Amino acid sequence: MCFSPSRLRKVPRAVVLPVGAVTLSPVTDLALSGASYETRAEADPYFLKSQAAGLVRSYLGDADPKNPLASPLYGDLTALPPIRVHVGDDEVLLDDSRRYVDRAVAAGADVTLDVWMGMAHGFTNEVGRMHAANQALDTIGAFLRERLAGALEAPARAAS
Fold first, then answer.
1. Which CATH superfamily is domain 5-150 in?
2. Beta bridge pairs of residue 86
3. From the CB of residue 36, how many other CB atoms can be counted at a distance below 10 Å?
4. Which CB contacts under 8 angstroms, 24+ apart, belong to 136-144?
5. Considering only CA atoms, which of 40, 26, 37 is closest in space to residue 90?
6. 130: left (phi over 0), alpha (psi -120 to 50) or beta
7. Where are the domains of the chain?
8. Using CA atoms, how far apart are residues 27 and 97, in angstroms rounded to an integer?
9. CA-CA distance, 77 to 68, in Å (whole number)?
10. What tens-digit pLDDT sequence spans the chain (160 residues)?
11. 90 near 40, Cβ under 8 Å?
């Protein structure tokens, strides 16, 4: 299903949730209200708040940036599957990750935040060349193997 940002609408929830999810440097707040847009501005070579604001305007048009269909930070975070969020400590998106995880945990979700010290946006693209990227990929792989193994075992238990 595809959405037109200028016509955001409520979509019925799926009956079956994924067994887990991983996000890398998620943009969870299109209102761009996180303090890290200021506190990490010098350290993050990839984003300026003014650039992000232009992209948000292009994407949303006149839609509310706090609409949960555009900004998950403002949505209902109950009944989420387990989620692992990875973000660099030097990213302007750091607060998007922190605040999303804090709200999800407060709503009872199993969400874990991995903050990679000294890492800028996109550091995971350096797998094979950067130790932190290799570690992040190993952590992501272990989480997904665990979640997928559990999902495969559940139908087998139900069938016996």
1. Alpha/Beta hydrolase fold, catalytic domain (3.40.50.1820)
2. 24, 114
3. 22
4. 136/86, 139/84, 139/86, 139/114, 140/22, 140/84, 140/86, 143/20, 143/22, 143/82, 143/84, 144/20, 144/22
5. 40
6. beta
7. 5-150
8. 8
9. 10
10. 233 333 444 555 656 778 999 999 999 999 999 999 999 999 998 888 999 999 999 999 999 999 999 999 999 999 899 999 999 999 999 999 999 999 999 999 999 999 999 999 999 999 999 999 999 999 999 999 999 998 877 665 655 5
11. yes
Question: Which H or E run contains 108?
Answer: none
Structure token pair of residue 8: 């955001």
First CA to last CA across the chain, in angstroms? 36
Q: Contact 87/97 with Cβ under 8 angstroms?
A: yes
Residue the block writes with tokens 């996180």: 34
Token look-up 């016509």 returns 7
